[in-house]
Design goal:
- The chain is mostly helical.
- Among the domains are: 14-146, Serine Threonine Protein Phosphatase 5, Tetratricopeptide repeat, CATH 1.25.40; 273-428, Serine Threonine Protein Phosphatase 5, Tetratricopeptide repeat, CATH 1.25.40.10.
- Helices cover 82% and strands 0% of the residues.
- The chain is built from 18 helices and no strands.
C-alpha cells in the first residue's frame, strides 16, 4: 500500500513537471502572439518589445528541457521568435547571431514538420522565414546600390530560396547576377536560370525581361538562344516593336538576312508608320545584295555570273524602295539617306567600271553603259547631298559624295570633299 501511494505521488510529480515544461512553451507562444499584435501600433511598441523578450526567455527554457527540446513546435517557435529579434535589430553585429539561430531552428522545424503538416507550425515557419528574407533583401538592396553585385546576389539568393516562386525574388536575384556577370561570367548562367523561370510567371515586366535575357545570351555569345528568346517575346507581345527591332539587328549581324524579311514585313504590318522597320528591311536587302556580290567574285561560269548579277541588282532596288519609304516618314533620317545614296550609287559604280573594261571596238556598248551609269549617279545625288547636309562630319557620307564627283569628273568638288575627309582624319 505504501508503495502504491509512493508511485501515485511520483506520477503526480511528473505531471506537474511536464506541465511546467509545457507552460514555458505555451508562454513563449502567448508572448510571441502578443508581440505580433503589439508591434503594429506605436502605442504598444514598448509592451511588444517586452513581450518578445519574455518569449525569448521562455523558448530558451523550453529548448533546453529534455521534454520539449525536440518538439517541432519548439524549433518553429524559437525560429519565429529569434527571427523577430533579428528583424527588429538594425545593428548587424547583434542582429546576425539571432539571424543564424532563427535560420537553424526554422530549417530544423521544417524538416521535422514536413510529414506532419502541422498548420500552426507551418505559419510560424513561414513568418520566421519572411522576417529573415526581409533582412536579406534589405541588405542586398544596400549592396546593390553600392555596386557590390556579388554580395547583393548572395543576399537576394537567400530571399529567393525562401520564396522560390516570388517574382520579386526571381527578378532581383537575376538582376544582381547579371551585374555580377559583367566581372565574373559564371553569374550569367544564374541570371539565365532566374530570368527564364520569371518568364513562366505572370510578372508584370516580362517584356523587359525578354530584352534583358537576350542581352545576357549575347554577352555569352549564344546567338541561337538570343534569337529564340526574342521570337518568344514577340509571340507573347506582338505589339512590342523594340523586341522586333532587336531581332532584326541580331539577325543581320548573324547573317540570317533571308529569314528576316518575313519577320520585318510582319512587324511593318503591325506598325506601318515605324521608319526604323523600313530602314532595317532596306538594310537586309542591301546585305543580301552584298553577299551575292561575294559569290559573284568566286563564280567563273558566265551564265551563273549573269544570273547572280540580276539577283544582286534586284536586291539593291528593293533596298532602295524601303529606304525611300523610311525617308517619306522622316526626310531627316540620316541613316536612310546615307544608305539610299549608297545602294543607288553602288550599281552605278559597277556599271561604270564594267564599261571601262570593254574592248575599244565596242564603242556603242561603252557609250550606252556609261550613259546608264551617269543616270544612276544623278539619281543618287540628292541623297548623297542630303546625308552630308544632315551630318557634315560623317566620313562615310563624304566618301560617297566624293565617289559621285569623281564619276562625274567634277574634280573641283571632288578635291574639296577630299580635304573635308582628311580634316576629319579619313583616308583617301
Amino acid at each position: 500500500m505504501k508503495i502504491r501511494i509512493l508511485i501515485t505521488g511520483l506520477l503526480g510529480l511528473a505531471s506537474v513537471t511536464t506541465y511546467a515544461q509545457k507552460g514555458e512553451l505555451n508562454n513563449a507562444k502567448d508572448k510571441y502572439d502578443n508581440y505580433n499584435v503589439g508591434r503594429q501600433q506605436k502605442l504598444t511598441a514598448v509592451q511588444a518589445a517586452k513581450d518578445i523578450a519574455d518569449a525569448k526567455t521562455s523558448i530558451d527554457k523550453a529548448s533546453t528541457n529534455a521534454k520539449t527540446s525536440a518538439l517541432p513546435q519548439t524549433f518553429a517557435l524559437k525560429g519565429a521568435i529569434y527571427s523577430s529579434l533579428a528583424v527588429d535589430d538594425t545593428v548587424p553585429a547583434t542582429s546576425e547571431p539571432n539571424f543564424k539561430i532563427a535560420d537553424e531552428n526554422l530549417r530544423k522545424a521544417k524538416s521535422l514538420d514536413s510529414a506532419k503538416q502541422d498548420k500552426d507550425n507551418e505559419k510560424l515557419i513561414d513568418a520566421g522565414f519572411s522576417n529573415l528574407a526581409q533582412i536579406r533583401f534589405n541588405r542586398g538592396r544596400v549592396d546593390f546600390q553600392d555596386k557590390k553585385y556579388e554580395l547583393a546576389y548572395n543576399e537576394f539568393e537567400y530571399f529567393r530560396q525562401t520564396r522560390p516562386n516570388d517574382t520579386l525574388a526571381l527578378y532581383v536575384t537575376g538582376l544582381s547576377a547579371t551585374m555580377a556577370g559583367n566581372t565574373n561570367p559564371k553569374y550569367y548562367d544564374i541570371a539565365k536560370t532566374n530570368y527564364n523561370k520569371l518568364l513562366t510567371t505572370n510578372y508584370s515586366q516580362r517584356e523587359a525581361i525578354y530584352s534583358d535575357l537576350t542581352e545576357i545570351y549575347l554577352n555569352t555569345k549564344d546567338t541561337t538562344n538570343a534569337l529564340k528568346t526574342l521570337s518568344a517575346g514577340i509571340a507573347a507581345f506582338p505589339a512590342n516593336n523594340k523586341l522586333r527591332k532587336r531581332e532584326i539587328e541580331i539577325g543581320l549581324l548573324s547573317g540570317k538576312q533571308e529569314e528576316l524579311i518575313g519577320k520585318i514585313q510582319n512587324a511593318i504590318t503591325s506598325d506601318p508608320k515605324n521608319k526604323d522597320l523600313y530602314y532595317y528591311e532596306g538594310m537586309t536587302y542591301s546585305q543580301i545584295a552584298e553577299s551575292i556580290e561575294a559569290k559573284q567574285k568566286k563564280t567563273k561560269d558566265a551564265t551563273a555570273k549573269k544570273a547572280l548579277e540580276k539577283t544582286k541588282l534586284d536586291n539593291y532596288a528593293k533596298a532602295a524602295e524601303q529606304y525611300k519609304k523610311a525617308i517619306e516618314i522622316d526626310p531627316e533620317y540620316f541613316e536612310a539617306n546615307l544608305n539610299l545614296g549608297y545602294v543607288t550609287i553602288k550599281p552605278a559604280i559597277d556599271d561604270y567600271n564594267a564599261a571601262n573594261l570593254l574592248p575599244a571596238n565596242q564603242q556603242k556598248a561603252y557609250d550606252a553603259a556609261v550613259a546608264k551609269s551617269m543616270a544612276e549617279f544623278d539619281a543618287a545625288k540628292p541623297y548623297l547631298l542630303k546625308a552630308v547636309e544632315l551630318k557634315p562630319k560623317s566620313v562615310d557620307a563624304l566618301m560617297n559624295l566624293k565617289a559621285y564627283y569623281l564619276a562625274k569628273k567634277d574634280m573641283t568638288n571632288a578635291n574639296a570633299t577630299q580635304k573635308k575627309i582628311e580634316a576629319l582624319g579619313g583616308g583617301n
